[in-house]
Amino acid sequence: MFCMLLRKHINNGRILKIEQPDMERVVVFYIEHRNELGDLCVKKLIVELMGKHSNIIFTTDDDIIVDSIKHVTPVMSSVRIVMPNQQYFIPKTSDKLNPLTVSKDEFIKKIKSSKGILYKAIYSSFTGISPVISQEICNLSGIDSNMPISEISDDFLIHLYNIYSNMMEDIKNNKFDPVIYYKNSEPVEFNSFGLSIYEDSINMKLSTINEVILKFYAEKDKYSRIRQKSATLRHIVDTNLNKDRKKYDLQLRQLKDTEKADKFKVYGELLTSYSFNVEDGAKSFTTTNFYTGDEITIPLDEHKSAIENANKYFDKYNKLKRTKAALDEIIKETKESIDYLENISTYIDLATSEDDLTAIREELITSRYINKHVKDKRAKIKSKPLHYISSDGYDIYVGKNNLQNEEVTFKIANTNDWWFHAKNMPGSHVIVKLKNDNKEMPDRVFEEAGAIAAFYSKAKGQSSVEIDYTKRKHLKKVAASKPGFVIYHTNYSLVANPDISNLTLVE
Question: I need a labelling partner for 142 at 20 to 30 A (CA). Which of 67, 164, 202, 346 fits?
């Protein structure tokens, strides 16, 4: 109904101006249109951006409410009624001041009368000032944003006001430089001008604030969908990892029990050698261990002869020996499964698109961690490895999952190309393609490839990561192993910082 009302009144109307009164969370559109008699009229479309209390209100030029998306009746609120034919006014939820018109004396008085710490006092005292902007003002002033108000001098408050005033003047004069800030490729903050508190972050500047907002929330939405879709995959991987880790611990305990095998073998040999010294019906036999020269006491079954007791111990020895051989193989398989799932977990963390997650899901289906009950008739998504260009023009390829690791290492790479991987941890295979006329690579290429291998690894959040690198020809694929697993015995090492902001990603 509200949309039909707007269509009736402002269809083919013209927006005269847009205002944000007193920096409140309210946007007012002034719209000129012709009424039923053909006369020019002005109406206001007011958007209140207040979380769960948000509303869109349509009023006349003199602020009489025509209608709204949400009605607020006297029963719902005794402070402000939002109903047709009521007078509209902006809700006052606090005693905050307009930051664009406040004087120096008002600013200082307001801050001094506040309690708590400085940056909270700033955003609590003025409309339209966010916690981020409060911290920015403190940072530009060179003061700790968490300083208690009681410890701040008048001289500093004057200095703080000057910084604050300069920022407000830029806003009043429309001096904007819209920017988005990123952490690990994900947008974390945007603003209409640069922020010194994010000076170490990767940023992207755009021409208009509209472009910034559209891009920021589009990318935020993408990462939100990725997190939602990755949650199911992560649950599957974590469930199997927990099972394998418990199984691995149990197998190690069972393996420790097999360490008794050699003791049982010695018991059997000693009883066989000294059987004539063992008395009938004895519960134990003490003799000298001819391997160590120490005295040893062997428990006996008094109902069996010395040779029968010896055979019992040989049986135990042989059983534990067979158990150890079987456990060695089973433990190896379990450890490989744990390593594989930890790799998958890392690739879920590194996924930057829904296609990446789809490829991981297909790999889990192939590896039988996910049961595929219904045949999927859709074409499988073929996601490609990442492709970077180094500062010296070398092509660098990165696998985003185990199948892509196989591709970059055994299909894209030639035998003399260089291979990089984070040492002893889950991570991507990184390949640097040699140029036709170059047998040697500049040191900078090794450093940049190492940084990429560090970034696409479990240790991407650390400041330094040890990286193994070697020629592709030194890698071997183990028969019947999980995808992406290789072994190598010849390699070099370097320490890399996982910062790849200076590298070009080929789309």
Answer: 202
Q: What percent of the chain has pLDDT over 70?
A: 97
**Rg, C-alpha atoms of the chain:** 36
* Residue 227 near residue 356, CB atoms below 8 Å: no
- The per-residue pLDDT for 181 is 95
Closest CA to 59 of 89, 22, 80, 104: 89
Taking residues 436-440, what's their average pLDDT? 72
420 and 400 within one domain: yes
Does 345 lie in the same domain as 290? yes
For 268, the 3-state DSSP assignment is helix
Domain boundary among 341, 362, 383: 383
Question: How is residue 448 written in tokens?
Answer: 């940049």
Q: In terms of pLDDT, which residue wins out, 185 or 148?
A: 148
- Residues 366 and 230 placed together within one structural domain of the fold: yes
Per-residue tokens: 129: 């000032």
Total of domains in the chain: 4
**Contact call for residues 295 and 289 (beta carbons, < 8 A):** yes
Q: What is the CATH number of the domain that holds 163?
A: 1.10.8
**What is the pLDDT at residue 352?**
82
**Last residue in a domain, options 349, 383, 417:** 383
Beta bridge partners of 72: 82
Say yes or no to pLDDT of 377 above 70: no
Split at pLDDT 50, 70, 90, the class of 37 is confident
What's the CATH number where 18 sits? 2.30.310.10
Residues, the chain, total? 507
Are residues 242 and 341 both part of a single domain?
yes
**Nearest C-alpha neighbor of 428 from the set 458, 454, 448, 456:** 456
- Sign, CA torsion 450/453/458/460: positive
What pTM value is reported for the model? 0.64
232 with 376, same domain: the answer is: yes
What is the rounded distance in angstroms from the CA atom of residue 352 to the CA atom of residue 225? 10
